[in-house]
Design brief:
Blueprint lengths: L1 H10 L6 H12 L5 E2 H7 L5 H13 L3 E4 L7 E4 L4 E2 L3 E2 L1 H4 L1 E6 L5 E8 L17 E4 L2 H7 L1
Amino acid sequence: MNKKYEDILNEAEIRITANRLLVLKTIHEDIHGAFSLLDVESKMPTMDSSSIFRALTLFAEKQLLHLIDDGSGMQKYCLCNCTHDNEHGCHYQHQGHVHLTCIKCHETICLEDVPIPSVPIPEGYVVHESEYVIKGICPKCQRHRH
């Protein structure tokens, strides 16, 4: 099983360590949708938060994860399902999906089957990344209001 995660790290040119393998395995197998550092920490109580944070930061730098700014003030991450190439890196702007954030509890979910709408970009601009966040109130928070 670790071979799969070793291959992912090797392909991203990330040096393999036990902590990085554990964090990668956890976010692939135990977490669904968008997540925060606290979400990963809750699944890995024996690993210190600074090690988890360093792994997540490196994974984002190497484009295994995307950063999501959902307005909650807490950094969120999403697994990258993009295609990559050595010249241009991540093709996220063509493969990205919509995120839905609750303005009450700040939970963010990935709408993986809903692509980011195509937006005409003025000539001369090069898109490096894009985000599309819809904000509302989740069903759980709606139930608590009544």
